[in-house]
Amino acid sequence: MLTDAQEIGRSLEVFLTAMVGLPRADAEKQHTFMEPGRTVGAYLPGERLVGTASSFTSWMVVPGGRKVPQAAVTDVGVLPTHTRRGLASALVRNQLEQCLARGEILASLRASEATIYERWGFGIASAVAAVEITVPQAQFRAGVPKGGDVRLIDLRERADQDLLARIYTGANWAGAIDRSSYWWRAKAHMRHLSQEHFYAVVHGIPGHEDGFAIYKPEDTTAWFRSKDRSIVVGDFVANTSRAHFGLIRYLLSIDLLQRVVLDPMPVDHSLEKLLTDERAVNTHAVRDETWLRLVDVQAALRARTYRAPGEAVLEVRDELLRENTGRYLISAQGVARTDRRPDITLDVSQLACAYLGGTRFWQLAQAGRIAVHDDGGLTRADHLFGLRRAPFSGTMF
């Protein structure tokens, strides 16, 4: 465990060197963006720090609405001179063992590579998309609610930064995660270092705000005479449907614009249904978002709700955290260990894919990634884990 501020700052340098092309923060401030007591490092005898992994104390909203404790894993990296030696595996194992000790039943991350984290029990639990709206075509259908008041705020002001953080605490959709003070501080710092200008609006009357959007202009080199002026909305948070309508109406009402790009957005956003011409909306660039790890399988399964009726028995295998290996009887009434014959056998990484409802068990079966012992049990499992909406986080870290 790294505790010294300089040592933690060096760990971020190791991560950035491993990643090659990410922007760098001010060296003197790097450690202030890391939560104390949550960074681990790998040293080789007689050498400097060569590998690191960190995390933040966090929660995740799981199906049913509970906010359960999780570790937001970040900054996993090994110097390119020391890869292929098992250092990353040792660091991640150490992290997961610490999660168990802290009572964090989940861990999640954003993956720079799509082929390495499954070996440690992580699976893709949610996806995001980019949504492009052609503004001149975007006319609202009659009857679409107006939403409420929207006002601009100043992202350079600490009070307005704190307002956004307060609004976000109301995030209530499956897959949403906590944004720690360290996350907000790092985002504000990176905006400060950027040459781009960011704008922010909040929805709702003062004291009762329930949503916000942060956006920036795209390609400003020829903005004055451009015929393709666009903004990119990089952070869109609506805790109520009223906020959703109000913020979308505002974004599409900004003068001069030809395009509004919202990225990231849920894959099942349905923005086109608001408009008379659905072709004004183009959804593209669908990609993985949440890589999830069930650290304590039984506690994680018990934390979420399931649709009635029916029950299914899942046999879970976990080579890294072997206490998770076993059979689980799942129904709307609860979750329990069992000796019954399993309907499905699967690795913990595949269970992570289905846990939030973003992937169906039949999809995993069709891909040969799980073993199905009973087709009826497969159908019941899909029903139990099903959600009305696709999971979505919307937070990059």
Automatic annotation (TrEMBL):
Q: List the Gene3D superfamilies hit by this protein, alphabetically.
A: 3.40.630.30, SCP2 sterol-binding domain
Q: Does the keyword Acyltransferase apply?
A: yes
User: Catalytic positions?
Assistant: 117 (proton donor), 397 (proton acceptor)
Q: Which residues bind acetyl-CoA?
A: 76-78, 84-89, 112-113
| UniProt KW keywords | Acyltransferase, Transferase
All copies of domain N-acetyltransferase, residue ranges = 1-157
Oligomer and partners:
Homohexamer; trimer of dimers.
Family note:
Belongs to the acetyltransferase Eis family.
Protein name per Swiss-Prot or TrEMBL: GNAT family N-acetyltransferase
Tell me the organism's taxonomic lineage. Bacteria, Bacillati, Actinomycetota, Actinomycetes, Kineosporiales
